[in-house]
Amino acid sequence: MTALQTAVRAVSKGVLLLSMTSASVLAVEPANSPPVPIGEHVVKAYPEDALRSLQEGTTILAFTIGADGKVSSPSIVRSSGSPALDQAALAGVLSWLYKPAIQGGRPIAVPWKAQVVFRLADQYDSPSRPYELVELQAADLPVDVRGTTGICWVYVVVDQDGTVGSVQLMHTSGSPHLDQAALTKVTTMHFTAALLDRRPIRTIVMLGMRWAGMNPQ
Question: Of 212, 187, 217, 216, nearest to 136 (Cα)?
Answer without folding.
Answer: 212
